[in-house]
Amino acid sequence: MRAMLKGIAAxxxxxxxxxxxxxxxxxxxxxxxxxxxxxxxxxxxxxxxAAVSEVEMIxxxxxxxxxADSAQVFxxxxxxxxxxEFIKSVEDEIARQRCNAEAALATVVTDYGASLAKLTDxxxxxxxxxxxxxxxxxxxxHLLGIKLPDLALLDRPVIVVTHDLIPSDTVSVDAKxxxxxxxxxxxxxxxSSILARSLNIPAVVGTQTATADLxxxxxxxxxxxxxxxISEPTAAExxxxxxxxxxxxxxxxxxxxxxxxxxxxxxxxGVTLAANMGTANxxxxxxxxxxxxxxxxxxxxxxxxxxxxxxxxxxxxIYRQVVSALAPRPVVIxxxxxxxxxxxxxxxxAPEANPFMGERAIRQSLAHQPLFRSQLRALIRASAYGxxxxxxxxxxxxxxFRQAKAIYDDERSKLTTAQVxxxxxxxxxxxxxxxxxMLADRFAQEVDFMSIGTNDxxxxxxxxxxxxxxxxxxxxxxxxxxLRLVDRIVRAGHAAGIPVAMCGEMAGDPIAVPILLGxxxxxxxxxxxxxxxxxxxxxxxxxxELQSLAxxxxxxxxxxxxxxxxxxxxVPGILDVR
Length: 578
Known about the structure:
Elements: E1 3-6, E2 8-11, E3 14-21, H1 37-66, H2 68-81, H3 84-97, H4 101-117, H5 123-144, E4 158-162, H6 167-170, E5 178-183, H7 191-199, E6 203-205, H8 210-213, E7 219-223, E8 228-231, H9 235-256, E9 272-277, H10 283-288, E10 293-298, H11 300-304, H12 312-326, E11 330-334, H13 362-367, H14 369-382, E12 387-392, H15 398-417, E13 426-431, H16 434-438, H17 440-443, E14 450-452, H18 454-462, H19 480-496, E15 500-502, H20 512-519, E16 523-527, H21 531-538, H22 543-556, H23 560-570
Parallel strand pairs: 3-4, 4-5, 5-6, 9-10, 9-16, 10-11, 11-12, 12-13, 13-14, 14-15, 15-16
Antiparallel strand pairs: 1-8, 2-6, 3-7, 7-8
Subcellular location: Cytoplasm
Binding site for phosphoenolpyruvate: 298, 334, 455-456, 466
GO cellular component, one term: cytoplasm
């Protein structure tokens, strides 16, 4: 029966193919009494060990296929599986109820989930509910002796339709057999959507009824750009979809030829296209996608993967590897940005009612100076092996920057006295707090460069959390207020003679790119997979014409939709880039 579903556009592209209904095995359990407590505890620990081994294998696969950023969710899964408090809770439940391990696990997970669900003002904890059920399912399957389905076993191209696609499902896929994803649940910022974009697989999520409306082997067309799904399409619709697929594949071939090209606009203006990266494992992707620089290396993953604070020498080895492998490209390494949605268990941070506005990033570095100084020394030492820039995150006041810079100067002076080799280092800041954006002209007199962190800047400016579906509509990258902040920062940087970059998701957004070029942004840093299509787009754009567009957008619009309409009129077909 023909149906037309509407969901959330999670990963761009049009695809036509047959449905594969991906369903969970029956993991229902029956509570039963036990007589041998030691045996039951041993069963539980064996299942835990098997689950950890499985997740470690999945993480390795994800790191290889998708990069370290996308694989970080599995570090969280391993940490949860090895959490002493969680393990003890299940052990206590087994002993107290004298019941089987799977029943005790289900009780503990239900209790944990209920506690997390009450933290409605903490998006990080809300997201952990999905992770909790993912690890619980894996342990339960081992206890029941049931093998979980693996999309890696597919042997024909299909469109996967499922209720919800958890991260461990997504990374197991072989892209040549997965044409696309459709789910009942999920949002554009969910783990699965991010992973689908990493795989460059079209996806539509949050349809609510896909599993009820679509049957195995049924022909469907999904459009990951518009968020639409059509079942039993007409011959004409199939032909159109197949042409779109062919055009997309042909464009991938064209994009590959741009890997070694410089980024130049149609009217000859050079622009730097940089990559965001999480760990040294991302180096091949940065090089393969023709990045001209690294605009952001997140150092927190180095800490999150460790069971203790990494030593100075351990950090130095990683930083040296990155800057030397990417030389002579400049590499911006951001100092530790922990807190908010990225706590470090071994730092024993006190719970905060609003961690996104609490002791995070530079605030934590200044509060824990031994940690900060160790990282700065490792970075300064690594500068001898390439072109290194250091960036401080979450700067809100001049005093914060001055304190951080003074600590950097002190450590550099000590290393100079000790005759430690080092190179020239630019020291800059992320502009992601509205207060810093409003005082950008003052900051520009004291920093070597500024990089706009739009992910947080938009959230703070609009007072909206993009992961909260109730207010996600307010998270508007194209809102004139946000664009005026960006324009203010760029103008301040240029007036002071320093470069201004952007390292948020907005930097690779095709609707935003023409405006940012018109504003005069110097460097665009994005996920490596977006670099070539952005380079291609920029080669079709005339900056001098876009300056007029930017002026009109900044001075004559009041809503995001007005901005989008204006860009689409000025650059016809811009959405096709997505």
